[in-house]
């Protein structure tokens, strides 16, 4: 079975030439191990998920690292955080570039260990599930928007042609039973699962921890902690409002988004792609997917996200603001297949307020025809790569 090439390959190869080690993070099943083993097939591979391997690493870290004179791919390395300080000594002594690829599906222990022990010695790269462009390049992209939103973009669904509903159900079960317990002491998995589903129902909305906690029967502090768990596991991300005021009082709360629309759709108990033609969550899932594509565009190239949103206390909002070259490029996101006149209202208001700070406006919609309107470039979902800036 031929592997689908990843855009991040070029950046990972470049980083391995300039750093002793690279940390490759991202959600479980996003393709980190597959990518590392494909590009560095000459290196030894071992996973710290294996109990015997982990016991060796923890009881004799020097001996463990000594097995790999020419480096290795160390999978799920956050499972043995004490290994980082010994790895630091190894990298300092060896001085060769590109020795180790460290993969991990959690941010907590992994990145804190990196910052404490390996600062300046490692580069970081985040690998999310496939982008639409990656599937289009190998003619595996869904032809219908509803199919794309339902199937999501996790590699196993497309590499192995698995049934999306079955795969996501298993993914959620595995994640809740294994990863959550590793991250923190969540005693009531049932409550946590309800919390995750409530988050899916709020993808694309402002994050209100008090309201979210109340709806789930948990405290504000517990909701805050559980949001951090979902962030650390690359299930959700928070899109922050841009600080530019333009003489309006700004909303300061971030917006909550899932990284993958298919996972969110599964958590909403959507049974098939056809449901999404009329489902009330269609718009939010489309927005979830569009925002994630912009984030992937940056992360696949080793860049920080340049994505924000803008909203004032009167409800005026721009779905996405892309910060680039001292300009703020507004992007409106609409799932409808037919362009309505009011699709441009927010863009027109924003451009009038922002004046010279505003870049060219873009509308991304669920239809098929690209257009050049006076108010904005209109880009259909299948050509979303034409909307990327920076």
Report the helical percentage: 40-55%
Q: What integer is the average pLDDT?
A: 92
Strands across the major sheet, in which order? 9-10-11-12-14-13
Task: Report the count of strand segments.
Answer: 14
Spans of at least 5 consecutive residues whose pLDDT stays below 50 are none
Count of helical regions: 16
Shape: globular
What radius of gyration results from the CA coordinates?
A: 22 Å
One letter per element, helices H and strands E, the order comes to: HEHEHHEHEHEHHHHHEHHEEHHEEEHEEE
Strand content: 15-25%
What distance lies between the first and last C-alpha atoms, to the nearest angstrom?
A: 34 Å
Which class of secondary structure composition applies to the elements?
Answer: alpha/beta
Domain unit count: 2
Main beta sheet, described?
A: 6 strands, mixed
List keywords for this structure.
2 domains; alpha/beta; six-stranded mixed beta sheet; about 15% strand; about 400 residues; Rossmann fold; 16 helices; five-stranded parallel beta sheet
Please outline what is shown here:
The mean pLDDT is 92. The protein contains 16 helices and 14 strands. α8 packs across α14, α10 crosses α14 (261-267) and α11 packs across α14.
């Amino acid at each position: 079975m031929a592997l689908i090439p990843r855009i991040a390959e070029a950046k990972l190869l470049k980083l391995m030439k300039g750093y002793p080690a690279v940390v490759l993070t991202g959600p479980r099943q996003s393709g980190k191990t597959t990518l590392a083993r494909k590009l560095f097939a000459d290196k030894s591979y071992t996973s710290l998920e294996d109990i015997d391997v982990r016991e060796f690493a923890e009881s004799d870290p020097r001996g463990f690292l000594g097995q790999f004179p020419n480096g290795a791919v160390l999978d799920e390395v956050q499972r043995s955080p004490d290994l980082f300080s010994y790895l630091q000594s190894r990298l300092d002594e060896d001085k060769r570039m590109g020795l180790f690829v460290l993969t991990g599906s959690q941010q907590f222990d992994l990145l804190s260990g990196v910052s404490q022990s390996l600062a300046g010695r490692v580069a970081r790269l985040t690998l999310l599930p496939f982008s639409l462009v990656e599937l289009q390049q190998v003619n595996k992209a869904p032809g219908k928007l509803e199919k794309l939103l339902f199937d999501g973009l996790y590699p196993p669904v497309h590499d192995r042609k698995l049934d999306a509903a079955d795969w996501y159900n298993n993914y959620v079960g595995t994640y809740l039973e294994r990863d959550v317990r590793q991250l923190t002491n969540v005693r009531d998995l049932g409550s946590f699962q309800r919390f995750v589903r409530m988050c899916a129902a709020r993808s694309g909305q402002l994050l209100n921890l008090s309201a979210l906690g109340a709806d789930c029967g948990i405290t504000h502090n517990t909701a805050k902690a559980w949001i951090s768990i979902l962030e650390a596991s690359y299930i959700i991300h928070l899109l922050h409002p841009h600080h530019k005021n333009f003489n309006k009082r700004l909303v300061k709360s971030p917006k909550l988004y899932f990284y993958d629309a298919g996972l969110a759709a599964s958590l909403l108990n959507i049974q098939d792609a056809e449901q999404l033609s009329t489902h009330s969550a269609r718009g939010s899932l489309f927005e979830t997917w569009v925002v994630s594509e912009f984030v992937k565009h940056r992360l696949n190239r080793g860049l920080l996200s340049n994505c924000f949103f803008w909203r004032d206390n009167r409800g005026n909002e721009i779905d996405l603001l892309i910060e680039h070259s001292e300009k703020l490029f507004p992007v409106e996101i609409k799932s409808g297949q037919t362009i309505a006149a009011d699709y441009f209202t927010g863009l027109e208001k924003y451009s009038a307020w922002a004046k010279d700070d505003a870049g060219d406006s873009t509308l991304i919609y669920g239809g098929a025809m690209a257009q050049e309107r006076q108010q904005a470039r209109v880009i259909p979902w299948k050509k979303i790569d034409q909307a990327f800036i920076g």
